[in-house]
Amino acid sequence: MNQGGTMQIDELDAWWRAANYLSVGQIYLRDNPLLRRPLRREDVKERLLGHWGTTPGLNFIYAHLNRVISDHGQEMLFITGPGHGGPANVANAWLEGTYTETYSHVGRDEAGLKELFKQFSYPGGIPSHAAPETPGSINEGGELGYSLAHAYGAVFDNPDLIAACVIGDGEAETGPLAASWHSNSFLDAKHDGAVLPILHLNGYKIANPTVLSRMPEAQLEQLMRGYGYKPHFVTVTDPHATEQAHQDFAAALDTCLAGIREVQASARQEPRTGADYAPWPMIVLRSPKGWTGPATVDGKQVEGTWRAHQVPLSGVHDDDAHLHQLEEWMRSYRPEELFAEDGTLRNEVAAQAPPGDLRMSATPYANGGRLLQDLKLPAYGDHAVVVDKPGLEKVSPMLTAGGYLRDIIQLNPENFRLFGPDETASNRLQDVYEVTDKAWQQRIDDVDEHLARSGRVLEVLSEHLCQGWLEGYLLTGRHGVFNCYEAFVHIVDSMFNQHAKWLKVHQDLPWRQPIASLNYMLSSHVWQQDHNGFSHQDPGFIDHVVNKKADVIRVYLPPDANTMLAVTEHCLQTRDRVNVIVTGKQPTMTWLGPEEARLHVERGIGVWDFAGSEDPRGGEDPDVVLGCAGDVPTVEVVAAARLLKDALPALKVRVVNVVDLMRLQDESGHPHGLPARDFDTLFTLDRPVIFAYHGYPWLIHRLTYRRTNHDNIHVRGYKEEGTTTTPFDMAMLNQIDRYQLAMDVIDRVPSLRSTQAGLRQHLQDERQRAWQYTRDFGKDIDAVTGWMLEEASPDDAT
C-alpha cells in the first residue's frame, strides 16, 4: 500500500465486507438482517430481484476512493456505469450515514437495516439501479452507455472536482460510451476538473463474454493509449487473495491521483508548460464477476462467470441447500465484526467515511440544485427586433437567439455552456464566437477558426456526447443549451427518455433541489432543407417528447425572431423541465413587436387580428378558423388568409397562432393546457378549423381529441414527402402551402363549397404554376419569395 495512505488494509477490507453484506441483504432478505438466528425461508423475499455480479467490484472501488478522499480532502463524485449496480450505491450511502439523513425511517440500527433490505426491488420501495432516490447518484444505471459523458459534463468548470467513473465492460460496448472516450479532447485541465475512468472488466454481460475482457491486454492498452489515456492495470488473479488486491488497487489509485495533479499543475501554470495535450491516467480493474459470492452452485461455477450476473442462488425458497448456502455466504463477511449488538455500524468501520459533504453520497455535486445560481440574463429589449408593421421584413430567429446567447455567455463565464454537434454556425448561432471559442485540446492549425484550449462552446459530431455532457453539467448545478439539427436529435431519443424519467422522480423527492432545465434549440428543420433533402426531414422528436410526464416537458414553436427571443428568455429561467424549441434559421417574417411577442409567449396561444378578416369587436363567430404552429406554417396560414380576404372580403377568417404547443391540450392533461372555455372561444364550438402544423399532423389531433370542436379540426402537416428542393415546394409536396389551405377553406365552409368553384380552380392553377416554376428555374416564384402581408409604402422602404 502507498505509504501516503493512512488506512490499513484490514480497515479497507472491513468497509468492503460491510458493503458486500448490505448488498446481498438487499437482494435477498426481508427480515433477520443481522442473522441473529438461522436463516429461514420467511426471512427471504418472495421475489428475488437485483444484480450481484458487478456489485462487489463497485463496493471495492468505493472503499478505496473513500481512503483518498480522506487523505487529501479531495472533492469526488462517484458515477457508476455498470447496469444494475444499485445495491452498492445504496449500501455505501447507508454506511456513510447519508441514507439515514435523507430517509429517517431507514435508521442506522437493526430496524433500519431491516427496512433497508426489504425496500430494495420491492413494491413501494426503491429500484434495483442507481436512481434519483439514491443519494450521491446523478447517473441512471438502468440504461447503459452514458456514465463517462455524464462524468465529463460534471467536471466542466469544476476545477477542484474529480469524477470517478466506473465503466462496466458491458457498457463499454455501447456506441455512446465508445464515443465518450474522446471527451478528454474537450477537457481543459486549467479550468475544468478531472475524470478518472475505471474500466471494470469482470468478463461477462447477462449471458455472453464482453469484448474488452477478452481482448489481449497489450491490445487493450494500445486502445486506451490511442484514446489519450495512460492505463494502470490491476488484475485480481486469485479471488481469495484480497490483501494483494487491496494493495495493488491502492497503489494504482495513488499513482493516478498524482498523475491528475501533474497534468493540472502543468496546465495551470502561466504560461503553460509541457505538451499541449497530456494523457490522463485511468485504471483497468480486472476482477471476478460475483467476487466473494458463491464459488459454485449445484456443481456449476458461478463466481467469475455470467451465472453471477443477477441472483446466484435462485432456489432458496424450495432448496434447503440453497438457503444454507445463502446463510454461509452472508456469514462469510463476518457481520459480528462490522455491526454492534444494536445493529449500528461499529465505530472503527464508520470512521472510514469521509467527513460531511466530502462523502460521495452527500456531495452537493450530486444534488446540483444546491449549487445552482440563477443566470444573469441580458436585457430582452437590447436584442428584440423593431416591428413597425407585421409581415413586412424578414429576420432569422436563430441569428437573433445567437446574439442573445453571446451576451449570456459573456455575463455567465463559469456556469453556462452551449453544446452542439458541429452545427453552431450552421444553425446561425455564430455570434457567440464574438466572446468565446470552441474548447479543443488537440492540435490547432493556423487555418482553424474559433478553436482554443478554453471555450464555452462544445462541439463534437456525436449527439450522444452533447446530450450526456449537458446532462452532467445540469445535474451538477449549471445551465446550458443543446442546439441541433431537428432531424438528427432523434439520435438521443433514449437519452432524453432517461433524463425525463429522472426529472419526474427527482421532482417528487423533497431533498433534491431543482436544477436548470434541459433546453433543446432545434433548427435546420424539416421545411427548409434546400440542399440536404429527405434524409434531413423529420419533425418527429416533438411526438416523442410529448409522451413524457406533463410536469416535465414543454414544446415551443416560435413563429418569428421576437417570439424566439421571448421563448429563449423564458426557458432559461425554468427549472426541472425539458424545453424543446423549434424554429428556422433562415430569415422569416417578423410578426410581433417586442412586447407583443413577450405577451404572446406568456399566453402561449392567441388570435392575430392583423392576419384575419373578422371584426374583432363584431360579436359573431368567424366563418372559419385558420390555426398555425411553427414558423413556415404560420407564413402559409397568414398568406392563405390574405388570399381569402382579397378574393372573398365578406368571409370572416380568424387566425390563431400557437407558440406553446401544450396549450392545445386540456388543462387536466397538462399544466399549460388551455381551459375548455378559452379553447372554445378561440376555435369556436362548431366552425371549421384548418390547422397548419410544423410536424406530423396526427399530434394535433392527439392533443385536441377531447375538445368540443375536435370533429371540425382538419390538420395539415408533414407527411413524409420531401426531397432536395425549394422551401415552397416542400410546403406544396406536403400540402401546407397557402393555395392548398385556401382551397381547404372553400371545401369546408358550407356556403363556399358550391359557390366558389371558379376561385378554387384559380387557386389550383396558381399552385400548379408555382410547382412548374420550381422545376423550370430551380427556385420559388417571386410571388412567394417576395410576398409581404401588405405592400410596402414608399415610407416603409425608406
TrEMBL record:
This is Probable phosphoketolase. Belongs to the XFP family. InterPro entries: Phosphoketolase, THDP-binding, Transketo_C/PFOR_II, Xul5P/Fru6P_PKetolase, Xul5P/Fru6P_PKetolase_C, Xul5P/Fru6P_PKetolase_CS, Xul5P/Fru6P_PKetolase_N, Xul5P/Fru6P_PKetolase_ThDP_BS. Transmembrane segments: none annotated. Keywords: Lyase, Thiamine pyrophosphate. Its cofactor is thiamine diphosphate. Pfam families: XFP (PF03894), XFP_C (PF09363), XFP_N (PF09364). Signal peptide: none annotated. HAMAP family: Phosphoketolase. The lineage of its organism: Bacteria, Bacillati, Actinomycetota, Actinomycetes, Micrococcales. It comes from Arthrobacter vasquezii. PROSITE patterns: PHOSPHOKETOLASE_1, PHOSPHOKETOLASE_2. It comes from the Bacteria. Residues 585-787 form the Xylulose 5-phosphate/Fructose 6-phosphate phosphoketolase C-terminal domain. Its EC number is 4.1.2.-. Residues 8-370 form the Xylulose 5-phosphate/Fructose 6-phosphate phosphoketolase N-terminal domain.
